Amino acid sequence: MGYNLIFLGENKVAKLISLTILILFFYYIFNEKFRVWYVSIIYTLMFAYVFIKNKKIIMNIPLVVFCLISFFTFSLSYYLFDRLDVIPQGGPYRTYKNIVNQYLWIIPFCFLPTIYHYFGFKTKQFFYVLYIIIGFLLVYSWIVGFQLDFDRGLLADFYNPIISYDIVFVSLSILVFVFSFYLKSKSSYLITAISLFTLFAFILHGSRGTWLVIPFLLFFLTLFYYKTQKIKLLFSGALLLIFLIANAVIPNSPIFDRFDEFQNDKAHIENHSYNNSTGSRLVMWHNAIELFQQQPVIGVGVYGVEKEHCHLAEQGILPSCFQHKHNIFFQDLAANGLIGLVGLIISLLTPLIFFFSQFFSRNELVRNLALAGFLFVFSFLLSGLTEYYLFFPHVTYIFFFITASLMSFIILKDKNKL
């Protein structure tokens, strides 16, 4: 049995790490509630074991900053200034307390380089796990899509919240797609195709914010691999072209329907009607600046944002009582003020700068991981212009875990350690 599962790890602990990743993702795929802190406890215990054994502890400043900054600029302020006390007890309190506490469970990711190195969890095992996830999603997402006729409304009910769901798996598909360019075997084309078709399925969901990264993906892949992987680039380009042509000729294309909806939103906005997807966002973003002016340092709090939206909904200015601003920057500006906004920017820029600094590494695997990591984070950043994905602890956890893992593999860039 152990031999059959060797691709998940060369020892029991490495296999356990693979298992935690599978559990983390499959709970999210099926939209089931999952206490992510279980995984953090497991990793903390692993690190404690290494520490007690007096083995080498591997720390990296950018990784530590990435894992700690949101806790200090977001979570801590709610306890230091008693900001949780203003939230009504019951459902809202539990929801917002989970959001506030979510960055506490990110802290153990500082220890991932030590854990991965000591227990021999390597890049190939990490991506084998992602292959399983992407392979399953290929089948699952297309079956669900066809069953629901790729109808945006039905998909939104099924995947609720659909935008965050799409952000996670568009970004994950891109990650595996980029890694396939590191692989040289003929079978790697299968990985390329699977990741692309999975990406296409989520593009058809119509979450327009997730589309923004595609031009950057094509640009960087061409820049990195036009000499060494020309055939794979052409193969990928051909699949993308076929996908676009198919959407251009079929009736009621989900992609072009979403463009039409945007044009309709634009027309309504020009007529001063904001009760639509785009218009509501403009109202909320403008309101974020007003809320920021009330509490510029620490913001009005995450519940304060929802309370304001409910007030606007009662006046008929917003169509419903939205829980957040549908934009990571405006949300943090309003809810957490300058402190929160600075923390958010640092949490995004730190991994982006880290990955960019490795673009010119002599190690081909490191260069590929750097590109994959850069595009993964950048995908979340761009998608965050139209959605506040950090409202959902499971999504936040996945983002920080994947990013910290990629940073860890690069930190362990000795060829034997990778």
Share in helix: 55-70%
Tell me the number of helical segments per DSSP (H or I, 4 or more residues long): 17
| Termini separation | 25 Å
Radius of gyration: 22 Å
Overall body shape:
globular
Task: Tell me what the structure shows.
By secondary structure, the chain is mainly α. The protein has one domain (6-255, 328-411). 69% of the residues lie in helices and 0% in strands. The protein has helices at 12-29, 37-52, 61-80, 91-101, 112-118, 123-147, 152-159, 162-179, 188-203, 214-225, 230-249, 254-270, 277-294, 302-314, 328-357, 364-383, 393-411. Helix 6 (123-147) packs across helix 9 and helix 16 runs antiparallel to helix 17 (393-411). The mean pLDDT is 94.
Concise structural overview:
This protein has one domain (6-255, 328-411). It has 17 helices and no strands.
Observed structural traits:
single chain, 418 residues, mainly alpha, ligase, O-antigen_ligase-rel_domated, transmembrane, membrane, WaaL-like
How would the blueprint of this fold be written?
Layout: H1 12-29, H2 37-52, H3 61-80, H4 91-101, H5 112-118, H6 123-147, H7 152-159, H8 162-179, H9 188-203, H10 214-225, H11 230-249, H12 254-270, H13 277-294, H14 302-314, H15 328-357, H16 364-383, H17 393-411
Helix pairs in contact: 1-6, 2-5, 3-15, 6-8, 6-9, 8-9, 8-16, 9-11, 13-15, 14-15, 15-16, 16-17
